Structure formats: C-alpha cells, structure tokens
Amino acid sequence: MHICLKCKPLKKIIIIILVLFTLFAAYSSKPDDKTCIIAAVKFVWGNRVPDEKLPLYFEPFMDLTSQSVKINDWIFLKRIQYKIKNEYATVGFGAFKRVFTF
User: Quick check: 92 and 80 in contact, CB under 8 A?
Assistant: First the structure.
C-alpha cells in the first residue's frame, strides 16, 4: 500500500476550503427576522394562525404574538425563542434561508 506524501496536505486544504465555503454560505444566507418571527408564531400557534392572504386578521394577530418572539443572531445562524409563561424556550433555528422548527 503506497501513501502519497503530497496527497495528505492537499486533502487537508480541500477540507478547509469546503468548511470555509459552507460557513460563508451559512453567514450570507441567514433568513431575515420577519421570516423567523412568522415561523415561530406558526409553530407555537399551529392552525390557529390566520391565513396570510387575509391581512385584516393576520396583521393584528402577528402584532400581538410577535412580541413574545426573541431572536438571537449568531454569526452563522439565528436561534428563535418564544416566551412561554415567564421564560423563553427555543423553538427553532434559522440558516440557509430556511427556518427549522422542532
């Protein structure tokens, strides 16, 4: 078995470039705060959220419920928290132009 001595540094450089590219893509493609707030409210309230096509109901509902959303903007992603009772619980993360709720 022959191991190329020149290949090991090349593999490390390629891995470093891929990691840096992924981190740059995550940094430059974080979702905006409005998207994160809407996703958090929809996650917590479920099917009780009015349809976005009916702004007469949707906007006042969002004005009330969005006050309970807290967004921590980290370097490569956003953590979304919702205030339940007296404490904030993490409901999702935003990265790559998407919001991932759990």
Answer: yes
The encoded tokens of residue 51 equal 């349809």
CB 26 within 8 A of CB 18: no
For residue range 31-56, what is the model confidence (pLDDT) as tens digits?
Answer: 999 999 999 999 999 999 999 898 99
Q: Which amino acid is at 91?
A: V
In a domain, 50, yes or no: yes
Where does the chain show beta strands of DSSP type E? 69-73, 78-84, 87-95, 98-101
The residue among 81, 85, 99 whose CA lies nearest residue 30 is 99
Structural domain containing residue 80: 30-101
pTM attached to this predicted model: 0.79
